[in-house]
Amino acid sequence: MCMVAGTAIAQNQQMKALIEDQFQFAREQYKVLAKNVSPTVMPKTYYQQSGKIETSDTKWWCSGFFPGSLLYIYEYTGDTAILSEAKRRLNILEKEKHFTGNHDLGFMMFCSFGNAYRILKDPAYRKTVDTAAASLSTRYRPNAQVIQSWNASKKWGGPVIIDNMMNLELLNWVSDHGGDPRFKAIAIKHANQTLKNHFRNDYSSYHVIDYNLQTGEVVKKQTAQGAADESAWSRGQAWGLYGYLVMFRSTKDKRYLKQAKNIAKFILNHPNLPQDKVPYWDFNAPTIPDPKTNRDASAAAIIASALLELGQYTSKQERTKYVAVAQQMLTSLSTTAYRANLGENGGFLLMHSTGSLPGNSEVDVPLTYADYYYLEALLRYKNWYL
User: Fold this and answer.
1) Domain 1-36+251-385 class?
2) Which residue among 79, 175, 360, 380 is least crowded, i.e. fewest CB within 10 A of its CB?
3) Residues 110-125: pLDDT tens digits?
4) Where are the domains of the chain?
5) Binding-site positions
6) Which residues constitute the catalytic centre (predicted)?
């Protein structure tokens, strides 16, 4: 056996063991989290200093991630107690299929009910997904050809955030599976406007674009959670990368794949990407290179999951590069530097995510979406590369 082949086999065995260990840990840790959180609400985060878990109602944009993570754990382990908990949480979330208050229906309903239908094939879950897509479509503003993210405020009249790219998967999936074709048409128009207006010449993304919703004119380009209007907020770059892969998967439009590759190039070649590949909360955080600069484990988890999908659409040489970085990210996240010990961290898996540092909200804490995309990336690695 040649040395290269031997190394590849050893790496595969190493990753297989790592994935097994993380899912067995998640299986027990999420039982702790479930016990810590009332069955009428969803877990949001945990504060180490106070020892308190913060929860949310089901209208919070993160409400789909806990049941989604439970479903990923069930998919890997087959643990029926985990499945029962997932179903309990789906039951309290189901009513949000009618929610039209912002753009987050994809996060809320597809990460939860989309996975539930994929795994369990219950037609009731399919109906919930269809209804959620119809609700999301009400946010579409035809004159500007975008889905409005947040409602108008004193600060913005027609805000669209890069995160919105993640909600397009819900629209695409429903259209691609026999639903209203208008949903996918909306997703394409939104993706094209975002491609046109959200990105700089280096393929980094603004966080917020404020549109004149009557004319489609860009009023201003700003940030809400990044270090500055012209900075590259790390999770925003992750959302963009993942979102354009979602669009390529559904449409096979090569412009979307090209955009994803260019975003990946920006991220992976950035001089401020740390050695362990877990990004600082913003690529232009003013405190870099101070090692105390906050990291964002959630950004690493999302990027890792996206890179694994990008590897499915690229040549062998490119695939090797993308998968290697994703593997490095997942390995880093699985160390004690980022992954909690059993029974600690309130029951969440990962530590050291950053929600909104400028708003002093959810700074250096666990977050449900960090756990969700971490589990998704581990499953993708197992299913696609082992």
Assistant:
1) mainly alpha
2) 360
3) 999 999 999 999 999 9
4) 1-36+251-385
5) 104, 163, 223, 235, 239, 356
6) 104 (nucleophile), 163 (proton donor)
